[in-house]
Amino acid sequence: MTPPTPVDAPRAGLGVRGLVVHYRDDDGTVALAVDGVSLEVAPGEVLALLGPSGSGKSTLLRAIAGLERPSAGTITWDGRDLAGVPVHRRGFGLMFQDGQLFAHRSVARNVSFGLEMAHVPRAEQRARVAELLAVVGLEGFGDRDVASLSGGERQRVALARALAPEPALLLLDEPLSALDRALRERLAAEVRTALKATGTTAVFVTHDHDEAFAVADRIAVLDQARLLQVDGPVELWRRPASRRVAEFLGFEAFVPVAQFEWLMGAPGTAVVGRGGAARDSEVRAGGGLREAVLAIGPGALEIADDGPLGGRVVASGFRRGVTETTVDVDGVGEVTVVDHAADPVLREPGTPVHLAAAAP
Hints:
Elements: E1 14-24, E2 30-41, E3 46-50, H1 57-65, E4 72-77, E5 80-81, E6 92-95, H2 107-111, H3 113-117, H4 122-135, H5 151-163, E7 169-173, H6 181-197, E8 202-206, H7 209-215, E9 218-223, E10 226-231, H8 233-238, H9 243-249, E11 253-256, E12 269-272, H10 280-283, E13 284-285, E14 288-289, E15 293-296, E16 301-303, E17 309-319, E18 322-329, E19 333-339, E20 352-357
Parallel strand pairs: 3-8, 3-9, 6-7, 7-8
Antiparallel strand pairs: 1-2, 1-4, 4-5, 9-10, 11-15, 12-15, 13-14, 16-20, 17-18, 17-20, 18-19
């Protein structure tokens, strides 16, 4: 008879338990880079590590890779403790901000590098390279010199090269941050498509929440070495676990839910501080509302002649196809009002306005 699986046994895939990593400053001071982080990544899942610079996300990634030694805690893969397992024996792939392509190799030979090191037969190499170049949108690029490629094309080649040996886990550290925003947004979607098409389990580090939302199945938010919340993109956006998480996601003002029930559910709003697992039924109690905080983000309010809120324009400008107006709202603070009208209206600073909940 097969013995029962212990309740606390790690799932197949990546398991991080109580991980602590210290680093030493230039003056010799020892500080925490990762403070008691626990998380799991299931096979085939893409997890984003999201946080500001210095939050510990890259150090956590490097510890998983074996490039940093933990002070405490465990890292497992399929239940196997990786303590003492060197980087090259973990079976993990790495991709960094600079794809670090080999300048003397063609696109195809860059992609095939890991396959060559594993002594994969030439015919299999050619088939795998062709398959992956098609996956990353570079079909027919095999014979090109990497120096002739654009920045986005080079990162696609780096992704194909990282995927070629079929790593058990792919670790991506800010792979798109050196690119301009428009290209990052396009490539983020393409990276997700490639990871899903190849069934690759991945951990993706970024400081850009739009990038994390585009790439990941789940997002782990870190700040000051600690893990603040892990959730799917929709749940994270709608239910930030704390004001710090909400602020990092771009929410601008925080008001009592009890006083702003009429604004709940408007685009760009979220209920904060319910542990990332609340539903409206948990916020509501006895026909009223428990004490909770409503976060207001860009686009939650719109200018309306009969709106219940008053304020004054701080600034107004045209950005990325819409008019964005910053309004200092009485009793709320500054919020961004987004107008999608084809004929934009730019309002002078100091102009009084009324605001209502934006239409869904």
